[in-house]
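Holo prediction — iron/sulfur cluster.
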Amino acid sequence: MTAEPVIDQQGTPGAGALPVTVRASLSPSRAADFKTCPLLYRFRSIDRLPERPSVEQARGTLVHAVLERLFDLPSAGRTPDAAGDLVAPQWDRLVTEQPELAGLFDPDDEVGTAEFLRSAAALLQGYFAVEDPRRLEPAERESLISAVVDDELLIRGYLDRLDVAPDGALRVVDYKTGGAPREAFEARALFQLKFYALVLWRTRGVVPRVLRLLYLKDAEVCDYSPDADELLRFERTVVALWQAIEQATARQDFRPRPSRLCDWCNHQALCPSFGGTPPPFPDRSAAADPLRDARSRPATPGADE
Ligand code: SF4
């Protein structure tokens, strides 16, 4: 399924028709940025500094694309060989749609490109070690979901996959392709899944039975089952996080919070923790458009971790 502009399966209004009370939008990636490091949030969401995709991110984007297309095939045909056959055509499509990916490899470096495609195929083998897609019929793939919480905050994000059991139970599935140590990103991954669970609960009235992280590199599954009380607390956390973002924006005060994740940050050269100086805070009219995210598609699925 190709993602559509901001609208969910239950008719939650999209960005073109937001309820008049909605005045802000937050995705799990940007919320996690602020939690991780307020300055990182500023660089990405307010300064909107470009980030050159890394080979690892490109590999994640490619593997997500292959897994999405794999489920277009008849169930019996969803084999490892079929997934392998999708790798090169999907890479060609991605490079056409996102020219910045083409710059990752020298056009004459056929060996480097071939090795990259082989590494993506190897990650797909990790997928087949933990799931048999011939036995699955996902309800949704790469689907944009959204809900309004606290009457004025639009929360939304792209699910990698949603499975619905015959009894209506929901399972949210997220593919993790990164090579970074899992412990460095696991809290962020779980935060993202709870975010999706909250949206589904608020729009469908059903708490997802399982939040599933599939670690393709390690061929491991991590399942988590939230409950309604937990999602209620999580909702308060998200609203409080947004209020903290609003305060930081009003004060133009986004401080660095160094951590292990700095090793994966694109912006060390501008970060005071690494001897850099952030650019001047952007014009307030640009910085203070909290619905801007709701009007455009966020980062490529799978590309940010
Ligand atoms: S280098 Fe670290 S502290 Fe600085 S902006 Fe990036 S994540 Fe934050």
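READOUT: The beta strands are 24-26, 140-149, 153-164, 170-176, 210-215, 220-224.
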